Amino acid sequence: MSRAASGSRRGGGIRRGETRAGWLFVLPAIVITGVFLVIPIFLALWVSFSGWNGFRSPLAPTVDFVGLENYAAITVEPGLDQENFGTAVRNNFYYVLFVVPLQTIVALLLAVQVNRAVLRGRGFFRTAFYFPSVTSVVAIVIVFQFLFTASGAVNAVLGFFGIDGPNWLNDGTGIFHAAAAGLGVESPPQALETDGPLGITWWDWLAGPSVAMSTLIMLAIFTTSGTFMLLFLAGLQSIGAEIEEAALVDGAGPVRTFFSITLPMLRPTLFTVLTLGLIASWQVFDQIYVLGGTTAGGTIATPAFLAYSTSFQDLQWGQGAAIAFILFVFIILLTLLQRWLLRERTREFRPRSPRAGQNPDVAAGVVGGDPTDRALVGASDPGDDEARPDRARPNRKGSP
Prior knowledge:
Blueprint: H1 2-9, H2 18-48, H3 69-75, H4 80-114, H5 122-134, H6 137-147, H7 153-160, H8 175-182, H9 202-205, H10 211-237, H11 241-249, H12 254-265, H13 267-282, H14 286-291, H15 303-313, H16 317-341, H17 360-363, H18 371-378, H19 384-387
């Protein structure tokens, strides 16, 4: 018996070699991940602390180690680099603030509609809503350029109603500033003219997304809602029909059922959708690159595009890598915050301890509480009636 146990501890028997075979199967994936993901990440981290200009190897002895200079240049040192980074962060912040909630709401509404059993042609609608997600982003951006030019179809429709539309993709006016101008506020208050975070004045931070960025927000919602619709649809189909039927039997209407039963059961799917949307929104690049990135007064530039332009165009690879890692930290912190906000909030039931001279049943809320609880606590074992004379069962014939 001890020999068999020692052989099992040594990995012998019929399972001999399983561990070795498992490592052999996963070794190609480990090598590929290490060569093309882990090593480049550490190499980029080194570049962010160096003065590498893109020529030769970043590990060459001639490359200087500059420490935190690249990070300081874009975060705390006043200058053009800090201003450009602050503007990009502001632009991307408003992009995330509008895109993530709106695309989540639209995707959930579409999923609820295409999940209805009474809807005819559900397969067609699912395909139609998902189709923009599988279409090339570059192609959709070019189509939006034709639609939202000064003489495009959108302004033609607005002109039919007597509205003079803007030059959408070249207008850098913030929508909050435009709303303030409509209310008569043409110049910022003196308190908002001071510098805020990252070298941007508080007035500029409160500008909101520009008209050009608002166009990209509409484009993002149009192209991504279909993908998240499928995730919500899978979550809705995993909810049993008997749950909603029980809610209807209890008198809950469709709205109450959705907010009290369906939506709480979609919490894991909701967390996935919000996390994916948050990461994708902070990494937006393709649309900005196609539009040039510097149009509309730089109000569509994002940190991802700024990292690209700083590295490949200005050849400041250390600063570009620093922007990328700061963006990485942004995404991690916001994901953790989102996870904390959407966590399950459960409270453990703890019965109150009885005070001196108090009946424990009263302290537990049984006596004087719900009649069903009192009946359950007061119920005795079936054999108690025969055992206790004062609780003798009456004769069914009426005899004592």
